[in-house]
């Protein structure tokens, strides 16, 4: 088998091992970018955005293939989460913009950033073309991403991009035709100028109208705007103001991408013999949630996290529902079965409970009920908890379980408390617990709806936002999708620390 793999590898193009630009040696690169490739991306991204009309050229490494796709997938998953949580366009832009700046900057002249954007889009086409459900999901997320990025462009870049598309439907009317229909056009768009662009003064709206250009196109191209009476209709044509052109562009983008995905699906069998790409594509299209939470960032021992303080209201108020359930089972039974012990032990380790404090915590929790002696605990359980901290056995430093791992475990049987309440609990039990958390009937209904759609991490994120009120809606706060119990805890504590202290506390300190 090794010889066959070696033979297949040797038949492919050789990669050169070189030193990267940052001084780190050993990274596989493919030489300098060809002049034709540079010319391609310069022409494609002359206006910062692209409809991805042409396939990418050149070569990239397998590492780039996977990492670039994962970075884009994280952004698309975050967009999907925002839409499911009923965020408006402005809120979604506030949440997504930092992710774009960090992982996939597009408003730049950097060639590598352009290549990453272009390649990652086509790689995910290969992942999500396999079924109609996946195609629709991908088109929705990519279209929303296109809308967000278009809104982030300057007005000059927007005009430049529209001109680069050369779409027959994007034909502006003459000033003579605008003057002839100015009364009807102004009456149609005046409410939009007031409520969408916040132009409340009549003179402001009139001045804006004088500068605004209008696009004349068949009404069926913007049927959703016709239904909402946002465009003027005459002779089977709709007159679209320029500030509404994004609806047309998004419709064109969505329609074209849908057709391209169908074509990609037809050609997909040609990849079946490539043993390098198929595992990566299957891994990416499996639909699991990628968490940005890095436990190592929070593994430093926190001074206020001790065997006793983990029970305190100051700490326990930040626990997600799954951890609250584990503590409830531990208090009632003075014991947790293996999966429950692992889930809670690694969570506590992630929030800063040291190994010594963990031994105190678990010894007290198991022996206080009188069913387990200290000797029996040391004999049957102590090794397990020390092993989680890398103090026994292979001395691996295990990380806290994220939601993907928790959801991959068997559902809890009678007497077990591990798992995800949003997946494992009945509607009645979950509704009762959520009502005890002071969620309204409307909020509970929204959470249950996400659970019914098997969007359990979105349900947890919704609960976080509902229970943390206006604090979590401030633009400066992290509002990303929560896919890790420790991320829930850290964000909750961070919000508490950001809140101003009462004046009485400040004067006493």
Automatic annotation (TrEMBL):
Keywords: 4Fe-4S, DNA replication, DNA-binding, Iron, Iron-sulfur, Metal-binding, Primosome
Record region (Disordered): 1-22
UniProt superkingdom: Eukaryota
GO biological process, one term: DNA replication initiation
Gene Ontology MF term list: 4 iron, 4 sulfur cluster binding; DNA binding; metal ion binding
Residue ranges constituting the DNA primase large subunit C-terminal domain according to the UniProt record: 316-489
Binding site for [4Fe-4S] cluster: 322, 403, 420, 460
Listed cofactors: [4Fe-4S] cluster
Gene Ontology terms: cellular component: alpha DNA polymerase:primase complex
A Pfam family recorded for this sequence: DNA_primase_lrg
Cofactor binding note from Swiss-Prot or TrEMBL: Binds 1 [4Fe-4S] cluster.
Residue ranges, compositional bias (Basic residues): 1-11
InterPro entries linked to this entry: DNA_primase_C, DNA_primase_lsu_euk, DNA_primase_lsu_euk/arc
Family: Belongs to the eukaryotic-type primase large subunit family.
Function: DNA primase is the polymerase that synthesizes small RNA primers for the Okazaki fragments made during discontinuous DNA replication.
Protein name: DNA primase large subunit
Species this protein is from: Torulaspora globosa
């Amino acid at each position: 088998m090794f010889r066959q793999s070696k033979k297949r590898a040797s038949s492919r193009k050789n990669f050169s091992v070189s030193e990267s630009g940052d001084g780190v040696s050993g990274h596989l690169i493919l030489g300098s970018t060809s002049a034709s490739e540079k010319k391609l991306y310069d022409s494609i991204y002359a206006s910062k955005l692209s409809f991805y009309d042409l396939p990418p050229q050149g070569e990239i490494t397998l590492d780039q293939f996977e990492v670039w796709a994962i970075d884009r997938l994280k952004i698309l998953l975050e967009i999907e989460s925002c839409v499911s949580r009923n965020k408006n366009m402005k809120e979604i832009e506030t949440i997504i913009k930092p992710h774009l700046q960090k992982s996939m900057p597009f408003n730049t002249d950097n060639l590598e950033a352009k290549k990453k954007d272009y390649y990652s889009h086509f790689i995910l086409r290969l992942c999500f073309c396999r079924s109609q459900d996946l195609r629709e999901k991908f088109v929705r997320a990519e279209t929303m991403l296109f809308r967000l990025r278009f809104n982030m462009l300057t007005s000059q870049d927007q005009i430049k991009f529209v001109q680069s598309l050369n779409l027959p439907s994007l034909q502006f009317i003459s000033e003579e035709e605008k003057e002839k229909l100015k009364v009807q056009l102004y009456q149609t768009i005046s409410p939009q100028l007031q409520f969408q662009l916040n132009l409340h003064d009549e003179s402001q709206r009139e001045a804006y109208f004088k500068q605004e250009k209008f696009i004349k196109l068949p009404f069926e191209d913007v049927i959703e705007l016709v239904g909402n009476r946002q465009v003027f209709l005459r002779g089977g044509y709709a007159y679209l103001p320029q500030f509404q052109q994004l609806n047309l562009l998004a419709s064109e983008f969505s329609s074209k991408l849908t057709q391209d995905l169908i074509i990609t699906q037809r050609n997909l069998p040609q990849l079946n013999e490539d043993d390098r790409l198929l595992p990566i594509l299957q891994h990416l299209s499996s639909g699991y949630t990628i968490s940005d939470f890095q436990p190592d960032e929070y593994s430093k021992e926190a001074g206020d996290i001790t065997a006793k303080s983990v029970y305190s209201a100051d700490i326990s108020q930040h626990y997600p529902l799954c951890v609250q359930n584990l503590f409830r089972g531990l208090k009632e039974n003075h014991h947790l079965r293996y999966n429950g012990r692992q889930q809670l032990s690694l969570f506590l380790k992630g929030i800063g409970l040291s190994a010594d404090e963990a031994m105190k915590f678990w010894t007290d929790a198991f022996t206080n009920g009188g069913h387990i002696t200290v000797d029996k605990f040391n004999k049957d359980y102590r090794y397990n908890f020390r092993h989680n901290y890398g103090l026994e056995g292979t001395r691996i430093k295990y990380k806290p379980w994220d939601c993907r791992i928790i959801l991959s475990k068997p559902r809890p049987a009678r007497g077990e408390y591990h798992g995800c309440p949003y997946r494992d609990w009945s509607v009645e039990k979950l509704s009762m617990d959520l009502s005890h958390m002071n969620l309204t009937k409307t909020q509970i209904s929204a959470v249950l709806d996400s659970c019914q759609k098997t969007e359990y991490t979105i349900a947890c994120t919704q609960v976080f936002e509902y229970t943390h009120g206006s604090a979590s809606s401030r633009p400066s706060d992290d509002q990303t999708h929560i896919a890790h119990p420790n991320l829930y805890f850290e964000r909750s504590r961070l919000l508490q620390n950001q809140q101003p202290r009462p004046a009485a506390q400040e004067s006493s300190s």
